[in-house]
Amino acid sequence: MPAAISTEGLVKTFGRTRALDGLDLTVRTGEVHGFLGPNGAGKTTTIRILLGMTRASSGTARLLDSDPWSDATDLHKRLAYVPGDVTLWPNLSGGEAIDLLGRMRGGLDKKRKADLLERFDLDPRKKARTYSKGNRQKVALVAALASDVELLLLDEPTSGLDPLMEEVFREVVQEVTDRDGRTVLLSSHILSEVEALCDRVTIIRAGRAVESGTLSELRHLTRTSIRAELAGAMNGLAQLDGIHDLRVEDGLVRFDVDTDEINPVLRRLTEIGVRSLVSQPPSLEELFLRLYEPEAAK
Amino acid sequence: MKTLAGTGGLIRLILRRDRIILPIWIVVLCAIPMSYVKQYGDLFPTAQSRLDYANNAGFITLYGELSGTSLGEFVTWRLGFVPVMVGLISLLTVIRHTRVEEETGRSELLGSSVVGRHAGLAAALLSTFGANLVLAVLLALGMHSQDLPWSGSVAIGAEFATTGWFFAAVGAVAAQLSANAGTSRGIAISVLGAAYVLRAVGDTSAHTDGPLACLSWLSPIAWAQRIHPYGENRWWLAVVMLAATAVLVAVAINLAVRRDVGAGLLPARLGPAEGSLGSPLGLAWRLHRGLLAAWTVGFALLGLLFGGVAEGVGDILRDEPKAKEMFERLGGSAGLIDSFFAGVMTILGLIASAYAVQATLRLRAEETSGRAEPVLATATGRVRWAGSHLLFGVLGPALALFASGLTAGLAYGLAVDDVGKQIPRLIGASLGQLPAVWLLAAIALAIFGLFPRISPAAWAGPGICILIGFTNAGVQLADWTNDISPFTHLPRLPGGSLSATPLIVLLAITVVVGCIGLAGWRRRDVPIG
């Protein structure tokens, strides 16, 4: 089965700025793919190219085995899109906007819409001008999730939603992927959301993919923190590969170790003799902070 | 006065934000009256010519009864519509700085700093009052500089300023009523419209000794008008206007205390839970229908008005060679009435081109607001989406012009007892403006498609054409200047000879320019901020 989305060497320049600088992205059919990166990294530009709104300066992009620019209209029948900042027509009610977007895409599942409206706790009779940011976001989510489509492009879809509604969003996305086998590209900053939903993630920085893989694969990229009380002198410890920030405080040795290098380090510690040892696995936050930092691209 | 804390700072903010628009409207509303003095003094030098000009039902409905034949009174009468404009601008300014600020949430941001509960309302009112005061002073100085007496010049300043103050206060009350700025504007403009209609009906009735003459006294517009600058200078009516303003301000403050920030006194209405809209065209209809109705009604009224005054104008043109010359330059010289109508149709065409550009630029508004993106992400192609809006840019002005031709033909036809012939003639003449109107819409589309960032430049089209049209009516311009405007190349209808070539050429240019615009739109990135 071909990938739902694949881009190779995608470049997009706006005047002198290079928004995308050779982006490779592959989203397999049926997976939820997390799309992460700091603000301005090029996530929205990528999604706009995939939607055929923006034309790539060079490189190739394939979406559901078609060209996103020249086959835009036909492709749009098979996908639904939720922008991160939804603006609606102030004098239309939420229900009208949902039905309008749904019909223009090729039809809505009425039962599903009613169910989503209830779960997202959205009053469709209110005029869009009276909606808060979160409620406008819900309008776009209901319109997209109630559509019978193969692919969902979600660009920070939960911005402005409260934690309860984020939970509902997670449930619904799990349903549409598990039950209906839909493919989802999810751009997000909320790490718990990414951890709960995504099969694989791609992290982009300055218009380029810096890492791609499953979350457990990515965890190998980061360091484990070790705190140990040793029986002897810490001879030779500093010379081992993969050790960082080695320091001694109150008789305790503290350091970080690259997860790939953990075995030789542990062997050396037991040779010296360990009285006590605390090891902390890398948190997702630390992983992303490290990957988001400018040096990570080098 | 803790509730007014921070008013000074808010006034500075308003003046900073309005630093361009405020001086513009003050200067324009000052310059128009001043330019009328010389122009109308030359066109109508004698008391009899002024009486003849003013004494017809159309003008009485439009401007009211002429109070006296001195130049000052004549010009003030002819300026009858300018105070309405002052009132309109004033109420819009107040609503823009009160309800719009609340609706967008900006006032909440300010309200959390050291700003009193009434400071926002007070700042909006005081700024608008101040602007009207500046207008009054400049107007008094300006009119006096045109050799008109001091007392009357101050009185016309008072007429304008008190009208502005009164409707600023109306705007302040309306801003409290609804949580939605659009509804607030609608309420305030309806009050202004009602005041104008009461005066129009009352004055028309008085002219024919009808029973409804007393209606005028219900209209604040009539109160201000009946100060009669340069005539009786009834200062007490200015005091009445001030008292009425004070009452309305008190009402607005009282209403403001009774509501929460962001809320209105009228409940927000709910819409349908299920929509019937399902196509780009349906959406465009929903977005354009209000504008379409307003322009069509406005054009129908203009047609009625011009049709109504046509017969009387014919008499004046016979006696006033300068006025006749003016209309001939605007609309051709095929008989007096026909040249008047041809001039009127040019004016209507110029106004309709503003509507055409406005409707076309809706595309850009949808793009920059981010509302185009979700629609284009559905199975709606770009050309189909643009076409749904363009339909209103093309057919909207056509409908508006048709309405004006219909009502003009009806009004004039009734006056000369020839309805059957006048209606088709004048509808034809009004629709004859369309090729030039459409060309300006096509230029707007081309700018949107190729250079979206400078889309507002599309307004230069109608702007330049209006400037050329009106300047040429006053003083004959060089041919090359005139030729820039597509309206110059239209046949002079009614009455002129109809030749197809210029129409076909204009339509062909329109199609080419429009297609270039669509091609640009198809190829470019969306959205371009």
Describe the protein's architecture and organization.
Chain A: It comes from Kribbella capetownensis. Chain A: This is ABC transporter ATP-binding protein. Chain A: Keywords: Antibiotic resistance, ATP-binding, Nucleotide-binding, Transport. Chain A: Residues 5-231 form the ABC transporter domain. The complex is a heterodimer of chains A (298) and B (529). Chain A has 10 helices and 13 strands. With 298 residues, chain A is of the alpha/beta class. Chain A has 2 domains: 5-217, P-loop containing nucleotide triphosphate hydrolases (Rossmann fold, 3-Layer(aba) Sandwich), CATH 3.40.50; 223-281, Alpha-Beta Plaits (2-Layer Sandwich), CATH 3.30.70. In chain A, β11 and β12 (252-258) form a beta hairpin. Chain B is mainly alpha-helical and 529 residues long. Chain B has 2 domains: 2-257, no CATH class; 280-523. Chain B contains 24 helices and no strands. The radius of gyration of chain B is 25 Å and the shape is globular. Chain B starts with 6 loop residues before the first helix and ends in a 6-residue tail after the last helix. Classes of the chains: A alpha/beta (298), B mainly alpha (529). The interface between A and B is large, with 44 and 37 residues.
Write the layout of secondary structure elements.
The complex is a heterodimer of chains A (298) and B (529).
Chain A: E1 5-14, E2 17-27, E3 32-36, H1 43-50, E4 58-63, H2 72-76, E5 79-82, H3 94-105, H4 110-119, H5 133-145, E6 151-155, H6 163-178, E7 183-187, H7 191-197, E8 200-205, E9 208-213, H8 215-219, E10 223-230, E11 243-249, E12 252-258, H9 262-272, E13 274-280, H10 284-292
Parallel strand pairs in A: 3-7, 3-8, 5-6, 6-7
Antiparallel strand pairs in A: 1-2, 1-4, 8-9, 10-12, 10-13, 11-12
Chain B: H1 7-17, H2 21-43, H3 47-54, H4 57-63, H5 71-78, H6 82-97, H7 99-104, H8 106-111, H9 119-145, H10 150-177, H11 181-207, H12 220-225, H13 235-257, H14 280-319, H15 321-331, H16 336-360, H17 362-369, H18 372-376, H19 382-416, H20 419-431, H21 434-450, H22 460-474, H23 479-484, H24 500-523
Helix pairs in contact in B: 1-9, 2-5, 2-9, 4-11, 4-14, 6-9, 6-10, 6-11, 9-10, 10-11, 10-13, 14-15, 14-16, 14-19, 15-16, 15-22, 16-19, 16-21, 16-22, 19-20, 19-21, 21-24
Protein name (chain B): ABC transporter permease
Transmembrane segments (chain B): 20-37, 75-98, 119-142, 154-174, 186-202, 235-257, 291-310, 330-357, 390-414, 426-451, 458-478, 498-521
Organism (chain B): Kribbella capetownensis
